[in-house]
Design a protein that fits this description.
The protein is α/β, with parallel strands linked by helices. Helix content is 26%, strand content 23%.
Length: 221
């Protein structure tokens, strides 16, 4: 089984399509997890249409969609779907999109991993699922590093911020239990693709150059 993760698309449809081109969704042993923040930045409706199209084609178990803080804001009527977009679309019926946003999951877990938009309450240890407030799932900051008994795959905070390197926009691994994949697409033009291979029990970053094993971030990157 190969589990792919993508996060923080923010309406960048061309960059999303580039990331999707690295993934063989016709492979029955593939799952793709979106970690949220589909909207707010460029063309939100185009991205929502693409993701919904994938779910309708491949099913909700293969195309897993989580809620990010930007979708949470829409769900709570604190924002509109296209707020801040570069592309303005009028006369769009928001109701189907809002229903889809409302249906988004808070997290996705396997025996080994927790996929979530921002993070969890790690101090709750094995009670994290009931001990984590919704706010933390969607908006945890600052991002946590260090050891946890499961691997945590999250977005929300740009890897340039986590690494302290303003030119780094790839997958950040802390060498312990945390993988962060928000590549600040609005700046970098890149949406990182993380893949976990259950056969090798390893994580890979997938790019147009192929795949490489994810190792702990080094200041030399």
């Amino acid at each position: 089984m190969k589990i792919y993760a993508i996060s923080d698309i923010h309406g960048y449809i061309d960059e999303l399509n580039a990331a999707l081109s690295y993934i063989d969704l016709d492979d029955e042993n593939t799952v793709l997890v979106f970690l949220g923040d589909y909207i707010h930045g460029h063309d939100s409706y185009a991205v929502l249409d693409r993701v919904i199209e994938l779910q309708e084609k491949y099913g909700f178990e293969k195309i897993v969609t989580l809620m990010g803080n930007h979708e949470e804001a829409v769900d709570e009527a604190r924002s509109t779907i296209s707020e801040g977009d570069d592309v303005v679309r009028e006369d769009v019926d928001d109701i189907p999109y809002r229903k889809w946003i409302h249906s988004l999951r808070k997290l996705y877990k396997t025996e080994k991993q927790i996929f979530v938009h921002a993070g969890i309450d790690e101090e709750a240890e094995d009670l994290w699922e009931v001990g984590t407030p919704d706010f933390t799932f969607f908006e945890k900051y600052p991002p946590e590093t260090g050891h946890f008994y499961m691997d945590i795959i999250a977005g929300h905070t740009g890897t340039e911020t986590i690494s302290g390197n303003p030119t780094f926009h790839g997958v950040f691994y802390d060498g312990e239990s945390h993988y962060y994949i928000d590549g600040s697409v609005w700046k970098s033009g890149v949406i990182p693709v993380l893949m976990y291979d259950t056969d090798t029990d390893r994580y890979y970053e997938i790019t147009d150059k192929g795949k490489k094993i994810v190792t702990a971030y080094s200041v030399n990157e």
